[in-house]
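The material for today's practical consists of a large collection of protein records. Getting from the letters to the tokens is the skill we practise here. To make this concrete, we reproduce a full record directly below:
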Amino acid sequence: MFLSDRAKDSIKVGLAMVIAYAIALYMDWDRPYWAGLAVAFISLETSGQSFNKGAQRIAGTFIAAVAALLILSLYPQQRWMFMIVLSSFVLVCTYMKSTTRNAYFWNVAAFVTIIVVVDSSTSNEPAFYTAMLRIEETALGVITYSVVSAVLWPKTSAKALYSTASHLSHAALGIFQETLDNGFSRAPQQYLKQQGDFSSLQARFEELSNIAQLENYEIWEVHDLWKDAAKLWVDYERAIEACRQNIGDVQTIELKKHLPWRSQYINEVEQRLTAITKMSLGEHSDYTSPQRELHINKTNTAGLKQLEKAALSLYVNQLRNIEHITYQLYEINAVIFGLRQRTDTTFKVAPTPKKHIINIGALKGAFRAFLCLWIAYIAYIYSPNLPTGPVLLILVGVYSISLSTDPYIRPLRLLKIGVSSNIFAASIYLLIMPHLHSFWSLGAVIFISVFSISYFFHSPEATLGRMFGLANFVMTTGISNTQTYSFNYAVDQLLVFIIVVAIFACVSTFTFNLRPEVQYLNLLRRFFKGASYLLSDQKNKHTTKDSRWQRYLRRHYINEIESIPHIIRGWIPEISQDIEKSELIKITVVLEALSIRLSVLMDEFKTAENSQLYETLKHDIHGWSTQLMTDFTKLVEEPSCETLEATLKLRETRLPEIEDKISKAEQEQSKYDGELGERLNIYRILGGIRSVYQALEDYEEQSQKVDWPYLKEARF
């Protein structure tokens, strides 16, 4: 009988926990449960992932120890300055957790600092002893689980990376075929599921490509190419979605006539993606990439109206982008898997510019942790009768920091999971452990308990239950060589947790108003504000000097319109059951479309900046941009779209006007007749404006199905 992966992973966590406790108890270390916590929180799917998280935990613990000793040495008797510096350090670390790749490092640095300073301040042991003990126990837990994971049913990140690469390229082929075949209009739910699966694989590929290099020399040798491939898959996902947005506009055009190379193009891209899949699986592929002779610029626009030329030009540009990305993906994978030399590639993937943008959501999460910590500290000072005051301060810090990136979680859900896991741990502590007289029996209880929690909460959706279950088991049982048992202690642990959740809920409700309906409306307004600013910025770019502040705002609002639809999706499940959530999800689909269409339009504006034909038509084009900006400004004030109905009706009468002006400009300036690129760019701008208005129409139509009065209703 073969064990499932679920059982194997649970056995590894249980065995590592027993070994870590055995070593800590044998060495007679204080607080051996710190080693148990390290095992509980670094156990992941592959050895590489666990090692990477363990390394971040050790590094974060070391930084926290240094920070704690520094704070204690500077303000040993000044409790308010002590708290100001500590909470400020926690604020910075919590914010950094949400804005950098090494999130777990900053998470550990924040809450371990609180643990060390509070524990040192309330115990008779020197602060240096507490800090070093924390580092030792953490290292013990990390090393123990890493060894067990490497010896017992090892799962390497390299193997997982190759498997993910093959699934990703296969999914890319499927979504490419469905997109060009207009699968979204036939079966939107199926298409969106396919798109979601691709996004999950792409995120997993990016994570594994960063980790696998730590455990595999072959991957480390070409780690830069793996990172390039991860970036290209992100670009591919966006390029496919941009193409999908424009499919409907070209359905009435006879594509075989106007794009004679389209069939060859589709066949070529399909062959590339299939070849990447075979390479990832280690199979032989006879495919040889051509020298990109698709002549994708040869477009027959005879007999088409200006608006049809605009849609076709936009479509061709998107196909060109997909062709360019898939070509680079094939070439990079051919080098990775040894089919050709690195020197054979004639291109270089441009790195993504890393310019920091203030993350509003991360800042709110960090301030929430900051305020929770202060409330717990004031309660600890002025309410000396609170049970286990130092534990309250520590747990408030740990939970508020760890949940800073999850604003969607309702306090009631935390209460259910936390109370049930506390009762489970307290039952073992009070009913079973007093009857144990050797480590063999204790080890069996530890193994069965940890195995059960890990097994029943193994799925990604149950991660919160797994973390609460393991943490509460380790903390409540408090296993040590000088074990004592007290019913009051178990009750105090439960009471402290309830107080922690109460503080967390109060700060969330009264300070940030995290009611899902309010957040949904606020995010909609932020999205439309960003869209309005970008159009305004585009209009003013030629009349005012581009300052550093303007460049920052441009990056900020681009990030807003790209990220907000995904953030909104996280809030929808928490909205009241009295409103139809499927309609709200459809709103986010429209927003994602609007985001991509705006990005495409901004790119086309940038491309056309030095075009003489654009200069001729700039006044009219900017008039359309101004109208769009006004429309988005109205949506900031009223997201229900009630103010746009009359404006959208004018679209059909005004579009032919700009179509006529483009025709006249071409006739008056015959020198542009041979410059197809400039004309096509103007067409794409027209197509971009048209597609943005189409997305606004879709939003207006969908908004009529949403119960806006219910969303706006003031409730506690």
Remarks:
- Residues 457 and 466 are 5 Å apart (CA to CA).
- The mean pLDDT is 82.
- DSSP finds 28 helices and no strands in the chain.
